[in-house]
Design a protein that fits this description.
By secondary structure, the chain is an all-alpha fold. A two-stranded antiparallel ribbon has the order 1-2. The chain has a single domain, classed as MFS general substrate transporter like domains (Growth Hormone, Chain: A), CATH 1.20.1250.20. Helix 6 runs antiparallel to helix 14, helix 10 packs antiparallel against helix 16 and helix 12 packs antiparallel against helix 13.
C-alpha cells in the first residue's frame, strides 16, 4: 500500500538504511583516521591521502553505478547486494594487523607503512561497495520516492542520521580500548556483520521505485550526461547549489578527519564521548525538524541560520579549550553542519531533473564528497604541517592536532558566502518566475 505516492515501508526503510549506512561511513570517516594513527602511527599527509583516495573512489563509483541503476531500473538490487558486500569488506579490516602482515612482506619494508597502504587500498574497495549501495542507489531511490511535499522532511531525517550514527558509534566504542589491536578487530567484525544483515533485510523491506526508463539509452552517454554544457545551462540553480555544497563540504573536511584526535590527543578529553553525546542528541533533533523549516521557508531563509550556527561553533572551538565551551562550540558546529547539509541536500533533490536521479547522483558526489574530500584534508594537513609532536611509549612520534583547523574551516565559509550571493539571487528570480 502506498501513501502520498510513497512506496510501502518508505519511512522504516529510510531510517534503517540511512542510519546503518551512516554508521559505516562514520567508522570510515572518523575512526579509520584514528585506527591508522593509533595502530600504525600515520601522519597528517597519510590521513589526507586516505581521505582523498576514498573520495575519488566514491565519486567514480557513484557516477558509474548511478547511471547503470537508471538504465536497468533495479535500485533495490544494488542497494541490497551492495550492503551485503559492504559488510564483508568492512569485516576484512580485521585482518590488517602487524602480526598478520609482518610475515607477508619483505624485511626491508616498514610494517606500519605496509599496513597503512593496505588500509587505503581496502578502504577504496569498501567505498566501491558502500557508494554503489548508499551514495548512488539509496540516494537515487530516496529522490524517486519523494516529492516537493515531503522532500525537506525526508531529507531532514536523512541528514540527521550522520549525527545519530556518531552517537551510536561513540557509545559503542566506549566499550573498547582503541589502543589495543583486539578492540579494532572486534569493531570491524561487529560493524561488518550489522551492515551485512541489513543488506539481507532490505530484500524484504525495500520497494522498487524505478522502471527501465533508460534501457534504450546509451549507458556511456548517460554517465557524462550531467557534464554536458547544455545540461548545465538548463539547470543553473542545480549546478550553483552543487558548487556551494562543495565549498561547504571543504570547510567540514578541513577539520573532520582530525576531530576525534583533537578531542582525545590535544584536549586530553578521555571522556569526550560522554561530553559529546548530549550535543549530538540535541543537534540530531534540531536537524530532524530543520527539514520541515526548509519545506516552509525555502532555501535562503533556512540556509543562513545554519551557516551562522556553524561559524559560531568554529569560533568557540578555536578560542576555548575548557569542557563547557567545547561542548557549546561542538553543539553549534554540529547543528550548523547537519542543518546546512539537509538544506543543500533537499535543494539538490528539488532541482534534479525527473527520471534522471541516478545520473545526477554522480554530480552530487562530486560536490558533496570528491571536491571536499580532496581539498579539505589538504588544507587541514597544511595547517597541521608544523604541529607539535608528541613522543609515544614505543619511541615513535605523532603529530598533535591544534585549534587552527577551525579557523581555517571558518575562512572557507567566508569564501562560500561570496559564492552564495549570486545563487540566492538566482533562486529568488526563479521563485518569482514560478509565482
Amino acid at each position: 500500500m502506498k501513501k502520498s505516492g510513497r512506496p510501502a515501508n518508505f519511512w522504516p526503510a529510510l531510517v534503517i538504511f540511512s542510519l546503518v549506512g551512516q554508521i559505516a561511513w562514520v567508522v570510515e570517516n572518523m575512526y579509520f583516521n584514528v585506527f591508522i594513527y593509533k595502530m600504525f602511527k600515520a601522519d597528517a599527509s597519510q590521513i589526507s591521502t586516505m581521505v582523498a583516495a576514498s573520495a575519488v573512489a566514491a565519486t567514480l563509483t557513484t557516477i558509474l553505478i548511478g547511471a547503470l541503476s537508471d538504465k536497468i531500473g533495479k535500485r533495490k538490487l544494488f542497494i541490497c547486494g551492495g550492503y551485503i558486500l559492504w559488510g564483508i569488506s568492512i569485516a576484512g579490516f580485521a585482518l590488517i594487523r602487524t602480526d598478520i602482515v609482518a610475515p607477508l612482506i619483505p624485511a626491508t619494508v616498514s610494517v606500519s607503512t605496509a599496513c597503512i597502504s593496505m588500509v587505503i587500498i581496502l578502504d577504496c574497495i569498501m567505498t566501491f561497495f558502500g557508494s554503489s549501495a548508499n551514495d548512488a542507489c539509496f540516494n537515487a531511490w530516496l529522490t524517486d520516492a519523494t516529492d516537493e511535499s515531503c522532500r525537506g522532511a525526508a531529507e531532514g531525517v536523512n541528514a540527521m542520521m550522520p549525527l545519530m550514527a556518531i552517537l551510536v558509534v561513540f557509545g559503542g566504542f566506549m566499550a573498547f580500548n582503541l589502543d589495543l589491536v583486539e578492540s579494532w578487530t572486534a569493531i570491524f567484525l561487529i560493524i561488518g556483520a550489522v551492515v551485512f544483515v541489513i543488506g539481507i533485510l532490505g530484500i524484504f523491506l525495500i520497494k522498487e521505485t524505478t522502471s527501465k526508463s533508460a534501457e534504450n539509452q546509451n549507458y556511456f552517454r548517460n554517465i557524462i550526461y550531467g557534464f554536458y554544457p547544455s545540461v548545465i545551462k538548463q539547470n543553473r540553480v542545480l549546478y550553483g547549489t552543487l558548487l556551494a555544497f562543495a565549498v561547504f563540504g571543504i570547510s567540514i573536511q578541513v577539520f573532520m578527519p582530525y576531530l576525534i584526535l583533537y578531542y582525545n590527543v590535544s584536549l586530553q578529553m578521555d571522556n569526550y564521548v560522554l561530553i559529546m553525546a548530549p550535543a549530538i542528541i540535541i543537534a540530531a533533533a534540531v536537524t530532524a525538524l530543520y527539514g520541515r523549516f526548509y519545506d516552509k521557508s525555502g532555501f535562503t531563509a533556512s540556509l543562513i541560520p545554519a551557516l551562522v550556527s556553524l561559524c559560531l561553533g568554529y569560533i568557540i572551538l578555536f578560542l576555548f579549550k575548557n569542557t563547557a565551551m567545547v561542548f557549546i562550540g561542538s553543539l553549534l558546529m554540529m547543528c550548523g553542519y547537519l542543518s546546512g547539509s539537509a538544506v543543500f541536500g533537499a535543494m539538490v533533490r528539488d532541482h534534479t531533473p525527473l527520471g534522471k536521479a541516478g545520473m545526477f547522483q554522480g554530480l552530487r558526489i562530486v560536490g558533496q564528497v570528491l571536491i571536499p574530500g580532496i581539498i579539505g584534508p589538504i588544507i587541514g594537513a597544511a595547517v597541521l604541517k608544523n604541529a607539535e609532536l608528541i613522543h609515544n611509549n614505543d619511541g615513535t612520534t605523532s603529530f598533535k592536532p591544534n585549534e587552527n583547523i577551525f579557523i581555517a574551516a571558518l575562512a572557507v565559509i567566508i569564501v562560500l558566502a561570496v559564492i552564495l550571493i549570486p545563487l540566492f539571487l538566482s533562486v529568488r528570480k526563479k521563485e518569482h518566475t514560478n509565482e
